[in-house]
Amino acid sequence: MTRAEWFEPKWLWLKRFALAAGLGIALMIVGIAADVVALTFVGCVLFAPLIFWVAFIPILHWKDRYIGGASNVWGAFLVFETSSWSKLFYWFIHVLPDWRRSGQYADAP
After folding, report:
1. Range of the domain at 38
2. Do 14 and 57 form a contact (C-beta atoms < 8 A)?
3. CA nearest 7: which of 103, 97, 104?
4. How far apart, in whole angstroms, are the C-alpha atoms of residue 6 and residue 20?
5. pLDDT tens by residue, 84-109
6. Structural domain tally of the chain?
7. Is residue 109 part of a domain?
């Protein structure tokens, strides 16, 4: 699988979830300001998929594309670490360099 084939559908979903999250944030702000629980709830429901997807992409990336000597360590850390700081760290160390074709991913297909 080429890099474009791997990233394109994931970025498409990321963009969709980001648009929904933007609307969700607006609804949450209006709901909190107007003290309307239903709007706040709908806003949270629209925002939740983005948080899930941002945390899920590093696991998918590690499973499919990781190039390195610490594969088992990263896999265990990404799955068992619950605060998601490791997933955020993985975004900057592996996912974004792979997308930009830099670092250890410069020559990856």
Report:
1. 3-103
2. yes
3. 97
4. 23
5. 787 888 899 889 998 888 888 888 77
6. 1
7. no
